[in-house]
TrEMBL record:
The keyword Zinc does not apply. Its EC number is 3.2.1.51. Residues 11-324 form the Glycoside hydrolase family 29 N-terminal domain. It comes from Streptomyces mangrovi. This is alpha-L-fucosidase. Belongs to the glycosyl hydrolase 29 family. Alpha-L-fucosidase is responsible for hydrolyzing the alpha-1,6-linked fucose joined to the reducing-end N-acetylglucosamine of the carbohydrate moieties of glycoproteins. The keyword Signal applies.
């Protein structure tokens, strides 16, 4: 059962199906993972050099927007603040912000403009956790930490003051940059403040915060990580087995976020890249199950998207350029796809995605007499198939491998007469 009460404007979200997630901040300079401060148990002093040297001289927001567009991504989500508490905009509520680093300028406004100028929608990621704020519970994410030590460290910390700060910054972000389409609040599955500070559950004052968000940005889509139902559910780094449904069986909007290599922030030595083919199949699998894919990139400390990530996004773009009509605005089909295949459907257009070469004729159950012709999307050739009798399928012997990833056939079907 999924935890969502859809309120926001979902039309663009279901049409988009594919977005770019950008994790960028001081940790990008460390180039070892966005949790580097926590995992290496760095003190504020240990971490300060990344602040003192943050000057992304090669950053060009239009390059990022261009790459998102080239990949076929219809929205871009930027980390305004991650768990380390560093703010990418000129917040009036803290000195721990980009305008106090050598870079000295707001990073959010130019990116919002570059993204919007290319007709791409903008989303903000905002961490509920804050390892830098003096009132946020001391990070207790070390199982070996002694509870008594936690309680002593947190005894004089006032979560209410931190939550006031959280609300004030969200207000800044939602009033300073025009129309914002999407908001991704984030905690950490690895642990929660309610188990950290020994003072009971962390109180984000979620209902109050969400009401403010909707008042400031009517129609905005908010995820499900505020401890109360949001507009969409957020499985992370795994593909649900089927479309998500609420208790009453109604569809639940969802978005899976995936990394290119297991790290959200730039991780220089991490070579576990997912192939474009795998990522394309993840996109198709997600849409076939009525979801969106938010695919992440972690730019470098100098503001560049590294060449490996760029090559992957451009290869995906080769596929979306040819097959985009088989994912954008599509969803699951009432027909059952053959093995190693997925169906996506939009109206009377059924798209058959072949994840593996068919060894023989495909079985297309339920399609007998419903298909007038099939069309290979990657070369737009049409095979006049007068009809597909049960168990028959378009002649696949003439298939040529698409530039990347799956081959998509288009099988226009007439919906069963009601
Ligand atoms: O702890 C974060 C992590 O760094 C990353 O931001 C992901 C992205 O969804 N969210 C949390 C882990 O669930």
């Amino acid at each position: 059962m999924s935890n969502a009460s859809p309120t926001g404007d979902h039309a663009w979200f279901a049409e988009s199906r594919f977005g770019m997630f950008v994790h960028w901040g001081l940790y990008s300079l460390a180039a070892r993972h966005e949790w580097v401060k926590n995992r290496e148990r760095l003190t504020d002093e240990d971490y300060q050099p990344y602040f003192d040297h943050f000057d992304p001289d090669l950053h060009d927001p239009d390059e990022w927007a261009r790459l998102a567009q080239a990949a076929g991504m219809r929205y871009l989500v930027i980390t305004t603040k991650h768990h380390d508490g560093f703010c990418l905009w000129d917040s009036a509520h803290t000195d721990y912000k980009v305008t106090n680093t050598p870079y000295g300028k707001d990073l959010i406004a130019p990116l919002v403009k570059a993204v919007r100028d290319r007709g791409i929608r903008i989303g903000f990621y905002h961490s509920l956790l804050d390892w830098h704020h003096p009132q946020f519970p001391v990070d207790g994410h070390h199982p070996q930490r002694d509870d008594e030590e936690f309680k002593a460290a947190n005894a004089d910390r006032d979560m209410t003051q931190y939550t006031d700060y959280l609300h004030a910054q969200v207000r800044e972000l939602l009033t300073g940059y025009g129309r914002i389409d999407y908001l991704f609040f984030d905690f950490s599955y690895e642990g929660r403040p309610d188990t950290w500070n020994g003072k009971g559950r962390a109180d984000w004052r979620s209902e109050e915060l969400l009401a403010m968000v909707r008042q400031l940005q009517p129609g905005i889509l908010v995820n499900d990580r505020l401890d109360i139902p949001g507009d969409f559910v957020t499985p992370e780094q795994y593909q649900p087995d089927a479309p998500l449904r609420a208790a009453d069986g109604s569809p639940v909007p969802w978005e899976v976020c995936q990394t290119l290599n297991g790290s959200w922030g730039y991780d220089r030595d991490n070579l576990d890249d997912k192939s474009p083919d795998l990522l394309i199949r993840m996109l198709v699998d997600t849409v076939a199950k009525d979801g969106n894919l938010l695919l992440n990139v972690g730019p470098t400390g100098r503001g560049l998207i590294d060449p490996r990530a760029e090559r992957t996004f451009r290869a995906i773009g080769e596929w979306t350029r040819l097959h985009g009509r088989a994912v954008y605005g599509c969803g699951p089909s009432e027909f059952t796809a053959p093995p190693d295949c997925r169906y996506t459907q939009r109206g009377d257009r059924l798209y058959l995605h072949l994840f593996a070469w068919p060894f023989g004729h495909l079985q297309l159950p339920g399609l007998a007499g419903r298909v007038r012709y099939a069309q290979f999307l990657h070369d737009a050739s049409e095979i006049a198939v007068q009809s597909i009798a049960e168990g028959q399928a378009p002649d696949t012997t003439r298939m040529s491998a698409p530039p990347a990833g799956t081959l998509t056939l288009r099988l226009p079907v007439r919906r069963p007469e009601v």
